[in-house]
Queue: 2 jobs
Job 1
Amino acid sequence: MMVCEYKPGLEGIPAAQSSISYVDGQKGILEYRGIRIEELAAKSTFIETAYLLIWGELPTKEELAAFEEEVRLHRRIKYRIRDMMKCFPESGHPMDALQASAAALGLFYSLRDLHNPAYIRDSVVRLIATIPTMVAAFQLMRKGNDPVKPRDDLDYSANFLYMLNEKEPDALAAKIFDICLILHVEHTMNASTFSARVTASTLTDPYAVVASAVGTLGGPLHGGANEEVIQMLEEIGSVENVRPYVEERLQNKQKLMGFGHRVYKVKDPRAIILQDLAEQLFDKFGGDKYYDIAQEMERVVEEKLGHKGIYPNVDFYSGLVYRKMGIPTDLFTPIFAIARVAGWLAHWKEQLAENRIFRPTQVYNGKHEAPYIPLEQR
Ligand code: CMC
């Protein structure tokens, strides 16, 4: 067997061959199926982009209408799932609630028919359609309210915001939210996608695939960073405090949340678009003092860490966008998951098409021939 050098974090080691997305970390380019995200953000919708990623091509008018309709018709969740969610502690994190609910779908749809394209499509539709409903339902139930039913007359993003806030959203806010989903839907072989592919490679069901990816996305080094960015901006509190805060953290060898990326060595192209979206919201609904702090922080961090290629990543400005929409901080990562589920499912489908179970090796650095010491002598 070929022996490879051990790389912590598997840095630089390809885990799959994939045609779903592409990143150039030096030039700050991200493409989905070859199309630049700037173009998709300006011209597409989340549902169309999800279709593109999963089936490989932009849909025709008829294909798009059919997919939108299928997703629309599957937005409702079973009352038993809702009742199960009612038993979740309200103090629990919504990502844990989402992981448990996504896994529970597998109990209700236990038929597994991975070679059947109709099964693949049904599972894709069900997951994309119900994940937002589950996120919104947990939010209302933890406040002691009944979840509201999805509204079939609203588009995907407008319906989610309606279910979350119990009122029809502003049109600009709904459009911007949809663009945020496009920006978060896919990003090559990141930790949660790797997790999805490893789980998929065992030929388990797609609900287990998504549940394992949701669990991986939640950590502060991955999707959870967007929450921590807001907490960090709150802790800093004023523009004057930015420099001393950054200097102190760097002195203590602590990370600055929302900065740095394994692949990007320039400003993340998604952060550039998100910053613009935040500004559009501020223009319409009024500014946010945390935006001034964030801009100053970007300047100071560039000055201190730019030479190491550390710039804002996708999580730095997304929280400011969601905050302006009145979304609670601990829902930022579940919203990331609402988008990313389509990326995970694209990888699930790709993995199944050429599956081999993941079974990496390890570098053993433990003992050999160790004696068994009897309990009374230890
Ligand atoms: N603040 C300060 N220093 C940093 C940061 C940061 N945010 N990120 C990297 N560095 C430094 C790090 O200290 C190290 O320095 P040195 O070589 O002197 O020891 C060097 O840069 C390499 O860092 P690393 O942690 O080995 O890099 P990595 O590729 O393993 O980690 C990362 C990538 C995203 C986990 C890391 O940059 C980080 O922890 N960032 C903060 C958390 C964050 O914002 N995560 C969101 C990532 S993007 C969206 C997503 O994945 O969901």
Note: The two ends are 39 Å apart (CA to CA).
Job 2
Amino acid sequence: MTPLMTIPGQTDPVPVPRAASTGGITTRSDGRIDLIGLPRARIAELFAEAGLDAKAAKLRAKQVYHWLYHRGACQFEAMTDIAKTMRPWLEERFVIGRPEIMEAQVSTDGTRKWLLRTADAHDFEMVFIPDADRGTLCVSSQVGCTLNCRFCHTGTMRLVRNLTPGEIVGQVMLARDALGEWPRGRMDVAEEESESDYTSDGRLLTNIVMMGMGEPLYNFDHVRDALHIVMDGDGLALSKRRITLSTSGVVPLMARAGEEIGVNLAVSLHAVSKIVRDEIVPINRKYGIEELLSACAAYPGASNARRITFEYVMLKDRNDSDDDARELVRLLKHYKLPAKVNLIPFNPWPGAPYECSTPERVRRFSDIVFEGGISAPIRTPRGRDIDAACGQLKTSAEKKSRAELDRQTAEVWAEKQAAMD
Ligand code: SAH
Ligand code: SF4
């Protein structure tokens, strides 16, 4: 069982040690190894350790990798180009894991939220937001968060551990299961597929944002390894241009994120003065606004075509004045940032110490930033009725009955089976 981690203090957040000292492997109680989350080379190593010669291990790893991530196979038996005798050999030693679905909810606006559980019984959440022209999956990187942004419900969770690469990539796989979006066609002749089978065209799940529970840069290696599989053409094959990583401002890891992951960057700025940002985003006490914006200016890959998103939660009388808006424009220009600003109306939760700005205030703020030459759309809150909106993710102790959960799981697998047929 993975030990729970202590929470660093509010003023000096530090990276938590990684959950899996086992090289990112999610271990199972029966000793079998979960392959989900592992790269091709690691799968080959495991096959070699289990007795295959090097050449066979490499070939089998390539085939299995394709079935796991590109086809979404969840049984070795389905891997039809692998010899029939080989499949039970795999079955005895390995598993194809998914996070367990504890609860699945659908909002009146179509937003879906899943409460998921790790093999060692930690709960976390994932949200899918359908729009007219895209479908965005909001993926969690940690159970809870070590940081304590004052407006964020996740920040009030006490327990935390990093999710493993398998648990991160597993969220995307579960979403594809639920949406029935694995490639179709002949399951055994991968070479005959056309390029278009691998693009997001025609799919519901087109974009991924690392904006669920947790601070992704405090789980750097696992997030990177998971996203590599998500971006790999023979993996889940989503373009890096359709993936966004959101950070509250872990400055020392931002350059590495650009170099080693290379996805779009979003930064939770939320305030333009030290005094306010120190209060609402406490990591600011460690890495201040100037340092943060300099790191943004140096972010590899940022350009006018790939702008950095600055998230700004609208808190009544805290950060929403005309002067705040003008200072925001000044700062973004001063650092010559290819920027767009996302204005997020504050989503309240029970006991939250803030209120949302009035709609007129949000509109005025948006206009000022826009007049300053920077796009500043107002985000419509989604899934509020099921607590799926930004910052509302917090797992509760309340659980459904076993029978209810079994029914939901069966439904999801039935959908998936239908998609594979
Ligand atoms: N930890 C990362 C990513 C997860 S939070 C980060 O902080 O960037 C995703 C976004 O939701 C962040 O911009 C966060 O500031 C915002 N958010 C958190 N709580 C919110 C709330 N109650 N209302 C609106 N947005 C919120
Ligand atoms: Fe953590 Fe992000 Fe919430 Fe801050 S806003 S507490 S960094 S999840």
Note: Residues 402-420 form the longest helix (19 residues).
